[in-house]
Amino acid sequence: MDGCIFCEIAKKRVDSKIVHEDSDVIAFEDLNPQAPVHILIVPRKHIVDLLHLSSTDQTLVGKIHLVANELAKKKRVETGFRVICNCGEEAGQSVGHLHFHLLGGRRFKWPPG
Predict the structure, then answer these.
(1) Where do the catalytic residues lie (predicted)?
(2) Contact criterion met (CB below 8 Å) for 99 and 67
(3) Annotated catalytic, 101?
(4) Which tens digit of pLDDT belongs to each residue from 13-35?
(5) Distance between CA 13 and CA 36 in Å, rounded?
């Protein structure tokens, strides 16, 4: 989608530190990390948020979680990490393209925020 920064990163029109990519998903380091490991996992297909998922996206969402699993192991945070998806501005979603945050490398508290 024109004007979407994540679509631009997926098309390699904008530089980013990519840590994983395949035909469906791209993952890159967050520019404003909130933990020692903070990776954004993004579908190449432009989907605005969780509310815009359809039943045809089930495999894609599953794949995103498998990528999170792989990256947690690769970044050596498998003993404790979070996978977060913010949906909507009130939840903190700042880019209108579905994405998941993989956060690790520090102790997290509950409840968050």
Answers:
(1) 99
(2) no
(3) no
(4) 999 999 999 999 999 999 999 99
(5) 26
Q: Which residues pair with 27 in a beta bridge?
A: 20, 41
Residue 37 and residue 20 in contact, taking contact as beta carbons nearer than 8 Å:
no
pTM of the full structure: 0.94
Helices (H), ranges, 3-95: 5-10, 58-74
Token pair of 11 as six digits: 């098309």
68 burial class (0-12, 13-18, 19+ CB within 10 angstroms)? buried
Q: How many Å is the Cα radius of gyration of the chain?
A: 14
Catalytic residue among 46, 52, 65, 99: 99
Dihedral (CA of 62, 64, 66, 72) sign: negative
CATH number for the region 5-104 comes to 3.30.428.10
Domain coordinates of the chain in residue numbers? 5-104
